[in-house]
Amino acid sequence: MTTQAKPRGRDTLLRGSFYTLRRKCGKPSCRCMAGRLHATPALSYSLGGATRLLTLRPQDVPEVKAALKRYRQALSALDREALAGIRALRRRIAGQKADARKTRK
Ligand SMILES: [Zn+2]
């Protein structure tokens, strides 16, 4: 019997978008002064109507991108489910109206 690994919760979800900051560091001799800017990965997201930026470590990038994708997929699945709910409600209401017309005859 194998020992159970640490129980895994639901995979992390992240809302927002991946963003690359491009900036100058300020050192006069640096390549960025010649226009080759430094690139810093970041997560851009909105919170309470304001856009926030969280700078990332390079090693965080794959996990962040995967979590953003999971969020988009979960969101579109939820949206499809909600639209199916509307279609079902519409059919039920239409069915009741049809029944009401039949009983009136
Ligand atoms: Zn620089």
Briefly, what is this?
The chain is of the alpha+beta class and 105 residues long.
Question: What secondary-structure arrangement, pairings included, does this model have?
Answer:
Blueprint: E1 17-23, E2 38-47, E3 50-55, H1 61-104
Antiparallel strand pairs: 1-2, 2-3
Bound molecules: zinc ion.
The site of zinc ion has 6 residues, from loops.
Task: Tell me what you see in this structure.
- With 105 residues, this protein is of the alpha+beta class.
- It has one domain.
- It contains one helix and three strands.
- Strands 1-2-3 form a three-stranded antiparallel beta sheet, with helices on one face.
- The longest helix is centred in the C-terminal third of the chain and has 44 residues.
- It is rod-shaped.
- The chain starts with 16 loop residues before the first strand and ends with a helix.
- Bound molecules: zinc ion (ZN).
- The site of zinc ion has 6 residues, from loops.
The biggest beta sheet is recorded as: 3 strands, antiparallel
Enumerate how many helices there are, as a single number: 1
Strand fraction: 15-25%
Helicity, in percent? 40-55%
Total number of beta strands: 3
Strand order of the largest sheet: 1-2-3
- So what's the overall shape? rod-shaped
N-to-C span: 70 Å
The SSE order reads EEEH
The chain-level mean pLDDT equals 90
Structural class by SSE content: alpha+beta
